[in-house]
């Protein structure tokens, strides 16, 4: 999902932002300086895989870390630290 996959780094950056606080897609696009449609694609991938959850709908949809990711946050951070070294 993150290492060795196309778009994995973008998904990692999204998650690192969501660790701090919930965002909507537009806020993430601005914070990461990434095209809105690209952010939406990666958010859909993360949600489909149970990594993030949402509240609301359409433009008001807010994205949060899922309970699964929260329970495994240390593992994610260890993986991210290794990936981030090679960036």
From TrEMBL:
GO terms for molecular function: DNA-binding transcription factor activity. Residues 11-74 form the HTH arsR-type domain. It comes from the Archaea. It holds the Pfam family HTH_5. CDD domains: HTH_ARSR. InterPro entries: ArsR-like_HTH, HTH_ArsR_DNA-bd_dom, WH-like_DNA-bd_sf, WH_DNA-bd_sf. This is Bacterial regulatory protein, arsR family. It comes from Candidatus Methanoperedens nitratireducens.
């Amino acid at each position: 999902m993150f290492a060795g996959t196309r778009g994995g780094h973008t998904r990692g950056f999204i998650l690192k932002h969501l660790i701090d606080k919930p965002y909507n897609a537009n806020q993430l696009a601005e914070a990461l300086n990434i095209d809105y449609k690209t952010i939406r694609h990666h958010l859909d991938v993360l949600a489909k895989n149970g990594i993030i959850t949402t509240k609301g709908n359409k433009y008001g949809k807010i994205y949060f870390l899922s309970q699964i990711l929260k329970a495994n946050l240390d593992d994610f951070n260890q993986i991210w630290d290794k990936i981030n070294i090679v960036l």
